[in-house]
């Protein structure tokens, strides 16, 4: 029997998380994508602490446009907050989603904002 879409994504996510881990020197940039919103967090997995977060539901990020444009705004916002917090290098965790569309737009905007990964 074939896996459901959700089970397939969780299997891919577990496979990625075996390899990608956030440290104090290089925290993890985690992406979560729902049908309506997109969320990004920079996490130090050694201490289990979220250092910086941005999402499409924040007042300063709320913008009009399609979902891909909003994802790029969130990417720029997370990069600004990270640079302000002294973070410039991260490990990208796509969360089991394909590197395509909104996830790609967020990642490229974060790179333009000054994050290296």
TrEMBL record:
Coiled coil: none annotated. The keyword Ribonucleoprotein applies. InterPro entries: Ribosomal_L18, Ribosomal_uL18_bac-type, Ribosomal_uL18_bac/plant/anim. One of its GO terms (biological process) is translation. Pfam families: Ribosomal_L18p. It comes from the Bacteria. One of its GO terms (molecular function) is 5S rRNA binding. Belongs to the universal ribosomal protein uL18 family. This is one of the proteins that bind and probably mediate the attachment of the 5S RNA into the large ribosomal subunit, where it forms part of the central protuberance. This is Large ribosomal subunit protein uL18. It comes from Vicingus serpentipes. The lineage of its organism: Bacteria, Pseudomonadati, Bacteroidota, Flavobacteriia, Flavobacteriales.
């Amino acid at each position: 029997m074939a896996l459901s879409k959700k089970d397939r994504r969780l299997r891919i996510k577990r496979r990625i998380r075996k390899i990608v881990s956030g440290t104090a020197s290089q925290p993890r940039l985690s992406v979560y994508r729902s049908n309506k919103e997109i969320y990004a967090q920079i996490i130090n997995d050694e201490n289990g602490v979220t250092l910086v977060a941005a999402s499409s539901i924040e007042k300063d990020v709320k913008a009009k446009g399609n979902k891909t444009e909003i994802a790029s705004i969130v990417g720029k916002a997370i990069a600004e907050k990270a640079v302000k917090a002294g973070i410039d290098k991260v490990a990208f965790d796509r969360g089991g989603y394909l590197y395509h569309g909104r996830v790609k737009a967020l990642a490229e905007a974060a790179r333009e904002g000054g994050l290296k990964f």
